[in-house]
Every structure is written in structure tokens, then in C-alpha cells.
Amino acid sequence: MIHRAQAYGRVFWGTMVASAGRSGRMPTLAKYDVLEELGHGGMATVYRAHDKRLGRDVAVKVLHPHLRESREIAHRFSAEAKAVAKLRHTNIVEVFDVSSEDDGEQFLVVELIRGDTLRKMLQTHGALPPEIAAAIAVEVLAALAHAHASGVVHRDVKPENVLIEHRQPGETPIPVGPVSMPPTSASRKTPDSTRGERVVVKLTDFGIAKLLDAQGVTSTGQVLGSPAHMAPEQIEGGDVDGRADVFGMGVLLYECMVGHLPFEGNNPAQVLRRVLDGIYPSAERERPIVGRVWSQILDRALARKPEGRFDDATAMREAILAELQRLGLGAPRMELERWFDDPEGWAAEHEKRLISRLCDLGGASRKKGEAVAAAADYNRALAYAPTDPQLLKIVSSMHRAEARMRLVKRIGPLVLAVVVLGPGAFFIARALKSDDTVVTDRTQPSARLGPDPSAVPSASPSAIASNVRAQADGGNVTTPVNVSPTHTAGGTGSSTTTKSARRNVTIASLRPPFGVHMTVDGAPSAEPSQGMSFTVDEKPHTLAFTCEKDMCEPRQVKIDAGDKDPEPLVVELRILSARVSVDGDPNHSYGIEEMPQFTLGSGVITEIPMTSGTKNVTIFDRNDSTNTLRKKVTLRAGQQESVSFR
């Protein structure tokens, strides 16, 4: 329990994540009875205390003794108190009191939130349902919008700084504080009676906030904040405004929806470089159920330059509310409440209604001729139900229509040339037709399947959406290629071509959705993707699937001989576990901060299940009361890592 308090001690506003604190001196405060330590961080320790005058429990943030001598730190601490004290909003932890110059301790008193951090939620549940992540983002963005209007930029938006309190049915509803934010166009449609009153989301720790109306606190050029959540201009020491928090919100929402950070590396320097370069995998590629619309919202929030992002927190909040409204979730806080009451039950019900809603939306877009929008909704529905026969039929139909469109685009100019130029154009047509298949990678002579991964912004949902997007953008589209060449029967002085039966093979589901390699009868092929189709002849064929760097168990799929299309393929490759060993004190136990369910022993090899090829974790000594014995390590599927605490 002590280590839980330490792990979440960075949340300085008093979340009750542990009932036991570190041993040591309790501060003496004139107006408050200090009851227990809740956690501690780099600047201060947080205690639960009782306000003797008002008869209520509060959280008290006490500056570390060795920092009181620093005038800069003391100034920043005082600025933090003044910054947050003027912010009065439902989604911001309220400041009650601050120490005076006569007090022996320098402290800040804030409301006590009896809940957990969003970080702990992610460690418990993993990636959240996209709509639940969006509902949480709506609340946090409301807090940011209010802070920005008051001249405060948070500068450290991350899951550790988001507190969530959930009261069970029958408990007293959580008191709702003042909200000075005008309702959005989407929220005006939501009756107040449908808003959940047993869940509240609070943004906390404005400890490194930069006041737009104050100078000198962070003007030394030092980097303040968490590297993976910092905007590029913040890293480079440039001017920072509310759009830096929009970027941080994009990082937070990406992690909630996908299950890992967009910018990852083996050390802070690598992370900072990737943030500055703006390189990260598309959310819909990493987790296809996120879908294209949410992925586009994330892409805009994570734009490299501030002018490419949402104008402010309100604009991002409006975009999220609009998509929730489009999906039929008009009361985000109510959905949050239902999910917290029963996560599994909510997820099962939501999946059914979401698939139905996405199909309806896709159908409506299809009728209006909006192929890209239709493909996006159908692809997301297919990610939830990869073997649904009706969805597969619709997607296959869209694929055939799109293939016909490509054919028309390809032969149209030839027909026009024959009409305009006459029979002489026949020879031109034959020359152009000599290579009647578009091959995306000409470095290998073997047949190519599906879209060119380098030409598609996001390869995960399906080849259909990728090709539709390419058409809409006027780019080249890959035509499915016949796996088996046409057989030629020779005769005296002549030759004839025997046409073999062509069959469509569709990959309905692919896990993992990226990094998979496929061979057909031993011949390498293009990278497969969910929803892609290709053709084979009537003979039997063997498809072999492997993962890059051998991170998965390989699998073979047999396609029997025949003249009918085989059943859509469901390809599930098991990602191998990572193995980790600790070289340390045999009498100590060790833990993984991001995966608290695992306990490691010195000299013991522990298998860690993986959901992706790599995962960056922090291993710590559970017997270390100072919380300083910590090692960063990258776990790799199928490989063993060793960590030394000697």
C-alpha cells in the first residue's frame, strides 16, 4: 500500500489512494489536524487533514523542507496557490487556504477527492472504450477552457493529474461547484436531468502552470512537465498558450483510447525527439475500433505546429461532443456513470448499439454518395464485428464498386484514344496494357496483394477505406493481383490461354493489426491488413502469417481447391510474452509500476503478457521506502530482459 501511495503521490491534490503513508514526522498546523500521508512528489507531500474550524476533511500539500530555502521554488509554490485559487469550476480541484509568512510550514489546502487518478484507471482497465475516453476528455477540456479564460495554462496535462470520484448508487450525489463555461451546441441538447451526478472528473496540479499575466516564474528556459505529454513549443522553450494544453489533451486522449502513449522511446531524449518530429502511429491503426473520426480528432490535437491544432480547448471539446452526439451519446456524464457502475455490462450493451448506429450512419452516407464517410463508419463497425456476414457483404459490395471505378478510370483514356485517334491507337493501348496489374513494390518479382502501405495514411481498418481515401485524394490505388499466373498450353505454331477460376480471399480480421507478414505458397506478399481482398486460382494454396521480429507465434491457413470463394479469414496471431529477470536482493520483492498485479523476485524469470511488440515500464524495489530504486526497461515480445539493482 505504501508503494501505491508513492506511485500516485505526484497527484498533489489529495486523492485517497492508500490508507497508510510513509513513516516519519507529521507536520504540525495550527488550524488543521494532520491525519495521514497520502503521497509525495518532487515538490511536496500530501496529507489528509481535518479542518478544525469547519469540521471537514481536506488535503494539505506541504512543501518539502529542503525546498523552502529556494526563493524560486517558494515563488513558484506561491504562484501556484494564487493561480488555482482564482479558478472556480466543477472540474478543477478547489483551493481552500494557503499558508502565511508566519506559518512554520509552507502549505496549500485543497478539497479532498475520494477517488483515483486516471492513471490508475488505465492500469486497471487498460485502453478504455473510445466513447468513455471521450466523455472524460469532455470534462477535462471544460476545466482547461475555464483555466485558459482566466489566464492560466496548465502545461502538464496527463492521467496522473486527472482525479475521478465515483459514488455508488444510493450514495449522496457529489456536490457540483460553479461552472462559468457557456453550454456548447451539443450540450444544449442534453437535458440537465440526464447528467450523471455520481461521477465527477477533476483536473489538478497546476504546480507548473505559467500565468499569462505574470513573468519570471518559468522564464529561466528550463523544461517543466512530463516529456511524453509536452507540446513541441514547450520543449523548445518557445511561447506557450492554451494550444499547448490542447496538445497535452491529445496525448492523454490517445493513451486512453489506444492503450499506450503516442510518443514512446527508451529514454526521455528519444521521447522528446519523437515529439519534436511529430512521429507517432495512427490511433486507428494501433486499435481499429477507435475508428477514423476519433483518429482525425487526435491527429488535429497532436499537430506539430500550434496553428494546426484546435484553436482552443472549447473547440476541441465541441468536436468531441459533436461526434458523441452523432454516435447517439448525447449525455457523456451519464454514460460515464453507467460505465463506472458496470464496465463489462456497459461495454457489451454499447458495442451492440454502436455497431447498429455505425451501420445506419454508413448506409446514410452511402446513399448520399459520401464514400469516404461511409467507409469510415463501416470499417469501425467491422472492427467490432469482423465476422458479421451482413457487414462483410456490405464491405465486399463497396470493394467491388470501388474496383469497377478503378477499372473505368484505367481504361477510359484508352477508349477515348481509340475514338479520337482511330485504329492506330490500338498499338498504344496494347503497350499500355502489357502490364495490366498495378504493382506497388517492384523491388520483388512476386505477386503483390492489397494497398501500398507507404501510400496509405492508416493501414489498419481495411483496404477498402484506404483505397476510397486514395481515390478521394486523387492518388494511385492498388489493384488486387492474381496470386497464380495464367497457364499457357503450347501448340504447333500457336498458343492458347486457359483461364482458371478466380476466387476472392478476404481477410475479415487481423490481430495484431500491424507488423504482420504474409507469404502465399512460400512467395512473399505485401503486408496484409484487415478487410483486404485478393484473388487466387482454383488450386489449393497455403498462406503463412508471421510477425516482424518474431514477436508472434506463426500461423498457416490452408485454402482448399475449388471454384467458390473461401470463407472470410479470421487471422489471430498470439503475441509472445516478454520475460524479465531481476538481479537484486533475494530478500526484497520488485514490482512493475505500470502493471501492479505482477511481483518479481530476484533471480526469477517472470513472463509478462504483451499486447504489442514493445512496452516501456518502470521496475521498482517494493522494499525501498524512499522510492528511489527504480529502473526503466523496454519489454519486448518473445525476448528476455534483465534488470540489475546491485
Task: Summarize model confidence as the mean pLDDT.
Answer: 76
CATH architecture of the largest domain: Orthogonal Bundle
- Count of all domains: 4
The CATH superfamily of the largest domain is known as: Transferase(Phosphotransferase) domain 1
> Gyration radius, to the nearest Å?
29 Å
How far apart, in Å, are the first and last alpha carbons? 25 Å
Number of helices: 16
Low-confidence runs:
1-23, 177-194, 209-224, 425-497
Instruction: From the 3D structure, determine the CATH topology of the largest domain.
Output: Transferase(Phosphotransferase), domain 1
Overall SS class = alpha+beta
Outline, from the CA principal axes? globular
Could you tell me the strand content as a percent range? 15-25%
- The CATH class assignment of the largest domain is Mainly Alpha
Helix content: 25-40%
Q: Quick one: biggest sheet? A: 5 strands, antiparallel
Number of distinct beta strands: 26
Strands in their spatial order, largest beta sheet: 1-2-3-5-4
What do you see in this structure?
- The protein is of the alpha+beta class.
- It folds into four domains: 1-113, Phosphorylase Kinase, domain 1, CATH 3.30.200; 115-332, Transferase(Phosphotransferase) domain 1 (Transferase(Phosphotransferase), domain 1, Orthogonal Bundle), CATH 1.10.510.10; 397-483 and 503-573, no CATH class; 578-644, no CATH class.
- It has 16 helices and 26 strands.
- The strands form eight sheets. It has a five-stranded antiparallel β-sheet.
- Helix 4 packs antiparallel against helix 10 and helix 14 (389-421) packs antiparallel against helix 15.
